[in-house]
Specification:
heterodimer; A: two-stranded antiparallel ribbon; B: four-stranded parallel beta sheet; 15% strand
Chain lengths: 219, 593
């Protein structure tokens, strides 16, 4: 097993998580990775992703684990030579078995940029979140209101961006849904919105990169 | 427009580009072309012709080529409401900023999307409305062997294979740019090249975008065809889409043209003669494509794959290639009479599709589909014994001389296929048998080009007959919508009076007409009425002596040959394949017998 860290940038950020499996398969095939296949009626390469990133958001910390026999050395260069625009592989960590990041990850840090950042009262927002915070969004075309306090772990302003730590994984709060809800509550316009996922964490608050490196040594 | 908020639209991957294999175009090329496909990304990206031209032009130092597909309705509406214009995928350049904008027409019902795209790009529809500030608009693809219905919208009509014509055009653009030609000077020079026709040079008059009149006296536009396909350009790579497209696989082209001469099939005549690539060339193409795309499925394309003279050598060569171990091979367009179980060996036993086209031997002889019931049942017996349990059978209704007996023959054939399955099956699986019927559409440059299109009443009577006969037999039956078929028939053989009809239909809301859920019959009916035309009259039988709207186009096929074939059709006499005997169609060729 080998876990690959990659960035997902525009225009690849416009590719849905479902389509990423096919994209990744073809990248691995072009890079001639020695992937193992499942044994079934429709054999497919054994590939495991970290939790889904919402459509349109960029990320500098996506992970994919693949059952491949390749060595770490040179693999990044091989992959980047055959990747579509917006996909940049940055690290490869050998794993004794699938680290199952889809289950291990519980939160993620997002950097959110938008035009009304100056007018955003972060202190008030943090206080409101502690007391119980509702946002309204469209779910399958129907408006839906939900208390998201237990899915927001931190909000702060840094420079001209908002940094938010939100639930990620099995229990998930989409960053775009969160910020749109906040701006609507504050009656601020939602313009020039850009979201970048900066990091992901385990339930203990450990960065996934560190988690993977520890696993690689101790498992 | 990379800063556009694409998350507001469905499937933004259609518009953002950046696919592996897409090209950074040379913005300083003499001929900057945007190749438009008048259907959505998933359909357009599957088209082999535009794939070839994309790479060919981008490898030519004189040319650059970018892509544009029809936006889905949501994106189209947003472009309009936000005041943005349609752009190319590669560099997000507005269409108006190209030297030349090309449309490839693969089916007549995509004409409305050409107007939709011009509208979204801010380009006036009619050539005479466009000044020097607009790009030249060029039309190509199989539909324009009869360019009459779209003449007033085009600056240039391209008749023939782009490998030849567009290479010549790029050379001309280099001269034109140096010598600062205006549009008219450019068109005048373009027409001196073979395979081009520039309608604005022949426009005599029009009356407020109606009653267009062209002078085509003495004009013959000769369809250009690659002579040596084996030496001709074929890309060793493909644009690998980031979302699933219709034909999501690597494609190698085996040969062009078809030797069978089925009398309803336009492709079978206009792509003549048969021109093959060598098996060694194709095998190398396949290996390169696999290596450069990462696809796990490879398709060997042609109009009739089992006629390929080196098919066995090629298949075994590909099977023995260790690099292709996990690659699924698909062979579309296999004819029933040459299907061999061994081809499918090693592949998953999924579904088989056959197109007998007609239900009785008599009618199959009429249309020159040279297969017999022995061929059909022989092939299916092998397939069923091999474990196949899904079969699709394609037929046509409304063929010339069709009787009730022929219609019932379809049901009879399907029922006997089912019986055969239960005799031959090797496991307990049930048969999934799908019968589908399309409506016969007479097309230019076929022996049936003079035939009438069936009336709605009669078509539905035959559909109902068939549906009743197949009901309770556990056979699925689907038929193609008559309304979209008649509009296809209207435009396939239409004359220049259809141009304003098309424009009006678009104004009434027609677009995406290739999509059954969007096809807007009422828009076309209203438009026809506005122009004083009737679909029934336009699709009636044409006299053999009448001057046809496409008579100034020369595909190589002679009228005498088509008339001979028509006569033989009425006598239910078949014509052998070009491999067996030359039937003097007029096309000069050297088909290996």
């Amino acid at each position: 097993m080998i876990t690959l860290k990659y960035e997902k940038r525009f225009p690849l950020s416009m590719i849905s998580h479902i389509d990423m499996l096919r994209v990744m398969n073809r990248v691995f095939s072009r890079a001639k990775l020695e992937t193992e296949y499942s044994a079934g009626y429709n054999p497919h390469a054994l590939i495991f992703f970290s939790p889904a990133l919402s459509l349109g958001a960029e990320s500098v910390c996506e992970y994919v684990t693949v059952a491949a026999k390749d060595e770490e050395k040179g693999i990044i260069e091989r992959l980047n030579a055959v990747s579509p625009k917006g996909m940049v592989f940055v690290d490869a960590i050998k794993q004794p078995k699938n680290p199952n990041l889809a289950a291990v990850v519980t939160s993620a840090l997002y950097e959110i940029r938008y035009s009304a950042i100056e007018e955003t009262n972060v202190e008030l927002l943090s206080k409101q979140i502690k007391e119980g915070y509702e946002i309204t969004y469209l779910e399958k075309g129907e408006p839906c209101t939900k208390n998201v306090s237990d899915m927001v772990f931190g909000v702060e302003k840094k420079g001209n961006a908002l940094l938010c730590t939100l639930a990620c994984g099995n229990k998930n709060l989409k960053a775009d849904r969160f910020i749109k809800g906040v701006l609507e509550n504050m009656q601020l316009p939602c313009e020039e919105l850009s979201i970048t996922k900066l990091d992901m964490f385990t339930a203990d608050g450990m960065s996934i990169e560190k988690f993977l490196k520890l696993k690689a040594v101790f498992d | 427009m990379s800063n556009y908020d694409y998350t507001k639209v469905s499937k933004p991957a259609r518009y953002v580009g950046g696919e592996y294999g897409s090209i950074e175009p040379n913005k300083n090329a003499a001929m900057r072309m945007c190749l438009c496909f008048p259907d959505v990304y998933e359909v357009g990206m599957s088209n082999l012709g535009t794939r070839i031209l994309y790479y060919m032009l981008n490898e030519n130092p004189l040319a650059s080529c970018e892509r544009c597909y029809t936006p889905w309705k949501d994106y189209g509406e947003q472009l309009k409401s936000s005041g943005n214009v349609l752009t190319s995928i590669e560099t997000h350049t507005p269409l108006i900023d190209f030297d030349i904008v090309g449309f490839s027409f693969q089916y007549e019902l995509s004409y409305s999307n050409m107007l939709y795209m011009m509208d979204l790009a801010g380009i006036p529809f009619y050539a005479h409305q466009r000044g020097e500030e607009y790009p030249l608009i060029i039309f190509g693809g199989p539909c324009v062997v009869n360019p009459a219905p779209v003449l007033p919208f085009a600056d240039i009509i391209n008749i023939g294979e782009g490998e030849i014509t567009l290479t010549n055009l790029a050379k001309l653009f280099e001269r034109g740019k140096k010598e600062k030609w205006n549009k008219k000077e450019m068109m005048t020079e373009v027409e001196k090249l073979d395979g081009f026709y520039c309608p604005p040079l022949h426009l005599i008059s029009h009356n407020e975008n109606r009653d267009f009149e062209y002078d085509n006296k003495g004009i013959k536009v000769v369809k250009q065809k690659v002579k040596d396909l084996d030496a001709s350009f074929f890309p060793n790579k493909a644009i690998v889409p980031n979302l699933e497209i219709i034909h999501d696989r690597a494609v190698a082209e085996l040969f062009r043209g078809c030797a069978n001469g089925c009398r309803f099939c336009q492709a079978g005549f206009i792509y003549r003669p048969v021109r093959e690539r060598k098996a060694t060339t194709v095998q190398k193409m396949c290996l390169d494509l696999f290596k450069n795309t990462g696809y796990d499925e490879l398709s060997l394309n042609s109009l009739s794959t089992s006629d390929y003279s080196e098919l066995h050598e090629l298949i075994s060569g590909l099977h023995n290639e260790p690099q292709l171990k996990n690659v699924k091979l698909s062979l579309p367009s296999l004819r029933l009479n040459t299907f061999e179980g061994s081809f499918a060996d090693g592949n998953r036993k999924s579904s088989l599709t056959f197109a007998p086209e007609a239900g009785t031997q008599r009618l199959r002889n009429v249309i020159n589909k040279n297969i017999t019931e022995d061929d059909i049942f022989g092939s299916l017996a092998v397939a069923f014994a091999e474990g196949y349990c899904t079969v699709k059978l394609y037929f046509m209704l409304g063929l010339p001389t069709e009787t009730e007996e022929d219609v019932m023959g379809i049901a009879d054939l399907a029922i006997r296929v089912r019986e055969l399955f239960f005799k031959k099956r090797t496991n307990k699986k049930d048969l999934r048998l799908n019968v589908s019927a399309s409506i016969f559409i007479p097309k230019p440059f076929t022996p049936f080009q003079w035939e009438a299109f069936i009336s709605e009443e009669e078509a539905m009577r035959r559909v109902k007959m068939l549906r009743d006969a197949l009901r309770s037999k556990n056979i699925n039956f689907a038929w193609h919508d008559w309304t979209s078929s008649i509009m296809e028939a209207v435009f396939a053989r239409g004359d220049v009076r259809l141009a304003p009809v098309l424009e009006k239909a678009y104004r009434y809301g027609a677009k995406m007409d290739g999509w059954a859920e969007f096809f807007n019959y009422e828009a076309y009916m209203k438009a026809l009425e506005d122009c004083g035309l009737s679909a029934d009259k336009l699709t009636a039988e044409i006299s053999e002596n009448a001057e046809l709207p496409w008579s100034f186009v020369d595909t190589g096929i002679t009228k005498e040959f088509l008339l001979r074939e028509r006569k033989k059709a009425y006598q239910a006499v078949t014509t052998p394949s070009c491999y067996k005997q030359c039937s003097a169609c007029g096309v000069k060729c050297e088909v290996k017998k």
